[in-house]
Write a structure and sequence with these properties.
By secondary structure, the chain is mainly alpha-helical. Helix content is 80%, strand content 0%. It has a domain of 40 residues. It is built from 2 helices and no strands. The relative contact order is 0.05.
Length: 71
């Protein structure tokens, strides 16, 4: 190993320490986070609903048609 070149574990420890300090400093900041978080949650819920309807839509339609035909 070359002199003056940090070991991988030292670099990883330094990166983890910097990341931890960044998270610790920014976790207390709350300006504008609430609306962005609600928007992300709403988008995820909409994506799940759309995917569920796309996957199960035909099956639900067929089941309802079977019930209608039986009446």
């Amino acid at each position: 190993m070359a002199v003056g070149k940090p070991r991988t574990t030292e670099v990883n420890h330094m990166f983890a320490s910097l990341l931890f300090n960044w998270v610790k400093d920014n976790i207390k900041r709350e300006e504008g986070q609430a609306m962005a978080e609600y928007g992300i949650i709403l988008a995820l819920i909409a994506a799940v609903v759309i995917a569920t309807l796309a996957i199960l839509g035909g099956k639900v339609l067929a089941a309802l048609q079977t019930v209608v035909n039986a009446l």
